[in-house]
């Protein structure tokens, strides 16, 4: 990949060093798979920098994306045991977050999602982590379970130097507007078009 | 992410199980970053399945993408020490592959690239690994250092159940044609457009 080239020099009064260290809000959206995958790939680099990584997955099933989860949990253990890389936390909505005291057997994904965001907001305000991966977070925004404007305001005001990556289809315009970097994945060709089923190690 | 839906049922006479286990040739191309990152994210899932992972990076500098390399080397060590996940090999062209006996101080990237492909071809013929990431491999193809038709023929004839992911801009049409899955990354917005420099942990 060629080195990044700067198209214009901004007039924001920041030094190159200050700009280099600006925390980023990144959105991975689009119709194709690869959004979450690319976010976790980015998190590998953060881990290697010694960053505190926190993943929050807004997924309905605890069985999704277990491959990445297991790999990152292993990297978190490497950090604990050898000091290499950074610490890793991995939280999954599934049928309720692990920290949640909300009981009852009836699934309430809207309440779960709101509770997840409340926890993330607390951590962001406290400057708890260096990189947040909010995986599939566009869906509760799209469905109105979490207020987009409140999310954008919270992210805009986040203290310190915290990077945030949001993944999911149909990212709301206000989130895209607020983002520093937006990547869209486009499907050119996919084996499911030819009737192939998803497979272990590739899809999960 | 919604469950994958099959658009049509193929008439290839294979059972669902056979189709599910078909080895894939995947191409990540397009103008935006995220191609390699998504490939390494996919490799995390393969690692968790216990696959033998081999990465070959066709990059000119040994300093590129060191974050992912360190993380995967750590996962390889986890496998060696605990048996979790799969083994990992990571090879980088840089100023010559580690196994190369070619000497001399003059850089010859074309010869290095051809040598890298020769080694990959030997391994594929031997069924050495479960997942190959051929990172930035489109460039030596584009520049004519490696013959595209020979690559496509080798990949088409590969024995056993070996997955291959190729990344890089401007994937040659013959490679795209041969691929089972092609993902293109598109830039919507990038901080370098606003004059921001790349930064540690995000870009490398």
Automatic annotation (TrEMBL), chains A, B:
Keyword Hydrolase annotated: no
Keyword field: Transferase
Gene3D superfamilies, per database record: P-loop containing nucleotide triphosphate hydrolases
InterPro entries associated with the record: CblAdoTrfase_CobA, P-loop_NTPase
Any GO MF annotation of the entry: corrinoid adenosyltransferase activity
Name of the protein in its database record: Cob(I)yrinic acid a,c-diamide adenosyltransferase
Entries under PANTHER family matching the protein: CORRINOID ADENOSYLTRANSFERASE
Family annotation (Pfam families): CobA_CobO_BtuR (PF02572)
EC number of the protein: 2.5.1.17
Group of enzyme by EC: transferase
């Amino acid at each position: 990949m060629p080195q990044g080239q700067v198209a214009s020099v901004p007039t924001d009064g920041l030094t190159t060093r200050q700009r280099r260290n600006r925390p980023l809000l990144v959105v991975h959206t689009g119709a194709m798979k690869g959004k979450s995958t690319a976010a976790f790939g980015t998190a590998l680099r953060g881990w290697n920098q010694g960053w505190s990584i926190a993943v929050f997955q807004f997924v309905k099933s605890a069985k999704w994306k277990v491959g990445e989860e297991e790999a990152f949990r292993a990297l978190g253990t490497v950090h604990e045991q050898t000091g290499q890389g950074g610490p890793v936390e991995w939280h999954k909505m599934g049928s309720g977050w692990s920290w949640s005291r909300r009981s009852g057997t009836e699934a309430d994904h809207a309440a779960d999602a709101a509770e997840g965001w409340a926890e993330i907001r607390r951590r962001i305000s406290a400057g708890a982590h260096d990189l947040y991966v909010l995986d599939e977070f566009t869906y509760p925004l799209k469905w109105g379970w979490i207020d987009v404007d409140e999310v954008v305001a919270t992210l805009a005001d986040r203290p310190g130097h915290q990077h945030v990556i949001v993944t999911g289809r149909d990212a709301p315009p206000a989130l895209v507007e607020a983002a520093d970097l937006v990547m869209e994945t486009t499907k050119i060709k996919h084996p499911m078009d030819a009737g192939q089923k998803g497979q272990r190690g590739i899809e999960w």
